[in-house]
Design brief:
The complex is a heterotrimer. By secondary structure, chain A is an all-alpha fold. Chain A has one domain. Helix content of chain A is 68%, strand content 2%. Chain A is built from 9 helices and 2 strands; from the N terminus they run ααααββααααα. Chain A has a two-stranded antiparallel sheet. The longest helix of chain A has 32 residues. The two termini of chain A are 30 Å apart. In chain B, 44% of the residues are buried. Chain B is of the alpha/beta class. The longest helix of chain B is centred in the last third of the chain and has 15 residues. Chain B folds into 2 domains: 173 residues, P-loop containing nucleotide triphosphate hydrolases (Rossmann fold); 76 residues, no CATH class. By secondary structure, chain C is mainly α. Helix content of chain C is 73%, strand content 1%. In chain C, strands 1-2 form a two-stranded antiparallel ribbon. Classes of the chains: A mainly alpha, B alpha/beta, C mainly alpha.
């Protein structure tokens, strides 16, 4: 392998790793603060991708889609918390597994009903639609670099919020409680819940999904399902022997 | 059996040290426990009493030091192995089987002495010896009226009694009791003190307790710990008179109420 | 619910299931036969999840190992002897569970879930990627094992009705076996471990040995289910060991209500029947099934096993008024 392809692979994996980090950070926050095992986390990822597709088709602009998508995602997250997850905080983790498995089936089917099973693509905005020439034959799309930058910014912002702010302190207190620390302040946990009712975590995940969706230039239902499987801890996370970007049956 | 000889040393801990990273929770703590004796570990919160009892029971391995039980070195034994040689413990935070009845909890404790896990076709409820022992131990711990109750719904004090009944059912010679009176009303407390005195007749008890009235009512020996260090060890009168103890922990003479 | 009513309910359900072959429809006989196999599988997992508190996410491995064992141990062109191949297959699953248990039982909680999954994935790829089991296409079992004992043949597994009743008898035996074990000192200790393992240790129980025993036993019974599955359908594929299967059986146990053997059976019936019935009604069956599952979790805490008690309480409540 020559140096250029090595560089491209490195960039690819870095950028993909950053996206996975964002998805995983959402999952761990939901488990850590709310004590909910969400098997359907990957479905939210899928919903974000389809929101990007639908809204971009409707408005003709990715920027507008992001601006509209975030409040929609917030509202959806808040609705699900109110309707379903609020009833599960004190229940056995395995019942949460069962419920969120049911959600996977529902989301999957609704997606198929509403948007169909075809592969869709979303146009990259003009200002990002360029490539950097690496060698005579190889180039790297600017859009992917932009994704990586957005991911890094979000990761740094997340680190800042969790380590340096009052909100972050509450989140960490919630985490400690989860790990069996005696008499953690339940007030803090409740406030942790309230924060999630605002759906901040979900909106961020949505944004990240939207990016990923663009990256692959097409939301194929099968690939999305495969991602769900790997991303939510319920899947063969220990043995993803295929390249994750191949389109495969889960 | 010579098991009930007075002054027989049951448990002997030498220079136990426990470090958590850089924090020294216990340093060079030596404690000895004789039969027919209640030895109380005293000290302010964070003094390292629970760490000490955890090392004695096998829940925590000591960083340094040795523990002997009836002359045998048991430092390397697990909690389960120590229970099998005759050391039983109760926990500071109630630690029971909340869904089980009182009888079943104590029967399970009794069953631990003859486990026979390969006998998968015998019925547990037909092991008369275990049932009889469980009933006797429940009676001894003063829970006779609650035999068929579900453990989780018992009052706090009754759950502490249940813990003691479970420990008794394991034939423990040494009882390590971590704050058995915590959260009890004065009546419950008084009856628990009676139970402790009764248990002392044939066993050795190491007690961690905050309730001063109870401590001086039952203690034969007191060890005072401060900041993970052993401050003073001696009979109650000596501790009461000790200037060092008063300065470090007890404050003024008034706090004794004795 | 009192013991007598519960017994009557179970016997009525058993009698209803036993009537299925009277329909004469191969389709129904095979479907219900499959559900009974899954019921055995679910009960074996419930021993771990519901009674010992060990959430195994790799239970399909033992199902698949025994299924492959019968396919591989049977000669190509003639029938193997049931009385040899059945214990051999089940023992292989038990052995695998014992060895894997030695490793995985050193972990707890979410780590236990992940590491059981990891071992099951290893088993999956052994059959999927090596020539041993015919790769991803799997392997056919051309002749069902013969039940002959020195020339006398009490029943014939290639007859679908005989096969059905053989599975039904096995399921009832597994139920009785597990119900009995749970009454034993061993079983009581398992329930104690689920309730409070730390306390069991401080009471002097070597809990690792108990958990290993339960894990091995569950592996053996899961293997029995896999054996019956392979004989029923006559072929095996690596998908039998996939994490989907592990997940499905776990869902059956949770749906039925953990820690209740009859619940595990009910969960297997409900899960498989929903798949069949909803898929029959509409191509959007996933939506219905997902909706039912969400509703069960929200409105029936404790799963299907709690339903008879709820009905009884509702009736009594009515009487009081």
């Amino acid at each position: 392998m020559d140096f250029a392809s090595f560089l491209i692979q490195t960039l690819n994996s870095l950028q993909y790793g950053l996206l996975l980090f964002l998805v995983a950070s959402g999952l761990t926050l939901v488990f850590g603060i709310m004590g909910i095992i969400n098997l359907a986390h990957g479905s939210f990822y899928m919903i974000g991708a389809y929101l990007a597709f639908v809204l971009t088709s409707a408005t003709g602009s990715l920027v507008a889609a992001i601006a509209l998508g975030i409040p929609l995602a917030l509202a959806f997250g808040a609705f699900l918390e109110w309707a379903l997850f609020a009833h599960l905080y004190k229940r056995d983790h395995l019942e949460q597994v069962l419920l969120t498995y049911g959600l996977i089936l529902i989301f999957e089917q609704l997606r198929s009903l509403l948007v169909g099973d075809d592969v869709h693509g979303v146009a990259i905005p003009d200002f990002l639609d360029a490539s950097i020439q690496l060698t005579e034959v190889m180039s790297y799309p600017v859009y992917r670099l932009a994704i990586s930058v957005v991911c890094i910014v979000l990761a740094v912002a997340l680190y800042y919020v969790i380590q340096r702010t009052r909100l972050g302190m509450m989140i960490r207190a919630g985490n400690d409680d989860e790990h069996g620390q005696p008499r953690a302040d339940h007030l803090l946990r409740d406030r942790g819940h309230r924060r999630h009712r605002l759906g901040v975590g979900r909106a961020r995940r949505r944004a990240d999904r939207r990016l990923r969706r663009h990256l692959r230039q097409g939301a194929h239902p099968r690939t999305v399902r495969h991602r769900r499987v790997c991303g939510d801890g319920g899947g063969p996370a220990v043995a993803p022997r295929r390249h994750p970007q191949e389109r495969l049956r889960p | 059996m010579s098991a009930t000889t007075k002054n027989e040393v049951l448990l002997q801990a030498d220079k136990l040290t426990r470090r958590f990273g850089g924090l020294v929770a216990n340093q060079d703590i030596s404690v000895s426990l004789e039969r027919q004796m209640i030895h109380v570990l005293l000290g302010p919160n964070g003094a390292g009493k629970s760490t000490c009892i955890n090392m004695l029971s096998g829940d925590l391995p000591p960083s340094e030091g040795r523990i002997h039980f009836m002359g045998k070195d048991i430092t390397g034994l697990s909690a389960a192995q120590r229970s099998q040689v005759g050391i039983g413990r109760s926990y500071q935070r109630t630690n029971i089987f909340p869904q089980f009845t009182v009888l079943e909890s104590v029967r399970l404790a009794a069953q631990s002495r003859r486990q026979q896990p390969w006998r998968i076709f015998s019925k547990a409820m037909e092991q008369r010896w275990a049932l009889e022992k469980a009933r006797a131990c429940i009676e001894e711990a003063g829970l006779g009226k609650r035999v068929d109750w579900v453990s989780g719904v018992l009052s706090h004090g009754e759950q502490r009694q249940l813990e003691i009944a479970m420990v008794l059912a394991t034939d423990a010679q040494v009882l390590l009791l971590d704050e058995p009176l915590a959260g009890m009303g004065s009546e419950e407390s008084a009856s628990m003190v009676e139970v402790l005195k009764r248990l002392r007749q044939t066993r050795g008890i190491l007690l961690v307790e905050h309730d001063m009235d109870a401590v001086f009512a039952v203690a034969d020996m007191i060890t005072v710990m401060v900041n993970g260090q052993l401050l003073e060890c001696g009979p109650p009168a000596q501790i009461k008179a000790s200037v060092a103890v008063q300065q470090a922990y007890l404050g003024t003479e008034d706090s004794f109420h004795v | 619910m009192n013991a007598q009513a519960s017994l009557i309910l179970k016997l009525v359900a058993l009698a209803l299931v036993a009537c299925v072959p009277l329909s004469g429809e191969s389709f129904y006989i095979e479907i219900v036969g499959k559900i009974l196999v899954m019921a055995i599988f679910a009960m074996s997992l419930d021993l771990l999840v519901g009674f010992t508190g060990l959430v195994s996410f790799g239970h399909a491995a033992y199902f698949g190992i025994a299924a492959y064992a019968v396919a591989l141990l049977s000669p190509e062109y003639e029938a193997a002897n049931l009385w040899l191949v059945l214990p051999a297959s089940v023992s292989l699953s038990a052995l695998a569970a014992f060895v894997i248990g030695l490793f995985v039982l050193r972990t707890k909680g979410i780590y236990f879930i992940m590491v059981t999954l990891a071992f099951a994935q290893m088993a999956y790829f052994i059959f999927h990627d090596t020539p041993l089991g015919g790769g991803s296409d799997g392997k056919y079992l051309n002749n069902k094992p013969s039940a002959s004992i020195f020339g006398w043949e009490p029943f014939d597994l290639s007859n679908e009705v005989h096969m059905f009743y053989f599975i039904l008898v096995m399921m009832v035996l597994v139920y009785l076996f597990l119900a009995r074990i749970l009454q034993s000192p061993f079983g009581r200790a398992l329930v104690g471990i689920k309730s409070n393992e730390h306390r069991m240790q401080s009471l002097g129980y070597f809990t690792f040995r108990y958990k290993l025993g339960a894990f091995t036993l569950a592996g053996a019974l899961g293997g029995l289910a896999g054996f019956l599955y392979a004989v029923l359908f006559g072929f095996v594929t690596p998908e039998l060991l996939s994490w989907h299967e592990s997940g499905n059986v776990l869902l059956m146990v949770i749906l039925g209500g953990m820690g209740n053997l009859a619940g595990a059976i009910a969960g297997a019936f409900a899960f498989e029947a929903m798949r069949e019935v909803f898929a029959d009604i509409t191509k959007y069956w996933q939506l219905l099934m997902g909706g039912v599952i969400v509703a069960v979790v929200l409105f029936l805490p404790g799963g299907l096993a709690g339903v008879p008690g709820r009905i009884k309480r509702a009736l009594q409540g009515g009487e009081v008024k």
